[in-house]
Amino acid sequence: METSTFVYDGDCAFCSRCAEFIERRIPTGARVLPWQFADLATLGLTEAECEEAVQWIGADGSRASGPDAIAKLLGDSGPLWRFAGTGLRLPPVRAAAWPAYRWVARNRHRLPGGTAACSLPQEARERLYGPSGRPTAGS
Predict the structure, then answer these.
(1) Which InterPro entries does the protein's record reference (predicted)?
(2) pTM of the entire predicted model
(3) Whole-angstrom Cα distance, residue 67 to residue 69?
(4) What is the pLDDT of residues 62-111, one digit of tens each?
(5) Could you tell me which residues come within 8 angstroms of residue 9 by beta carbon, excluding any fewer than 6 positions away?
(6) 34 is in which domain, residue-wise?
(7) Reading across the β-sheet that carries 5-8, which strands appear in turn?
(8) Which of 62, 105, 130, 133 falls 20 to 30 Å from 121 in CA-CA distance?
(9) 3-class DSSP state for residue 45?
(10) How far is it, in rounded angstroms, from Cα 11 to Cα 76?
């Protein structure tokens, strides 16, 4: 793999907004893509892993998830963002980051840009909204 990859949930409006922020504001060489459009097998990821948290697959083969993946993404960017990524890796910050990340993941449908679909597992989202994310007939 030549380029690092940051994978997020493209069916979640909150996650998509965060990814748009990354693409606009954080100068990284990593690909930022929704797991629904990623070749998960090539990346060595499963749908379950991607449902649980954002994922980082480094060009060097390193892997991280959740706030650790965010720290890796920040570490792969400009100086100010690298500083933030270093801070996120500090043991006391990292210890607080995981519970905060899990809270956000559980409540992303309530956050700005979130929708009711954000709170559902992938299988339920597809059953209700179809693979395109649009409501299917009868829902």
Answers:
(1) DCC1-like (IPR007263)
(2) 0.80
(3) 5
(4) 999 999 999 999 999 999 999 999 999 999 999 999 999 998 888 877 77
(5) 15, 34, 35, 36, 50, 51, 54, 118
(6) 5-129
(7) 31-34, 5-8, 55-57, 63-65
(8) 62
(9) coil
(10) 25
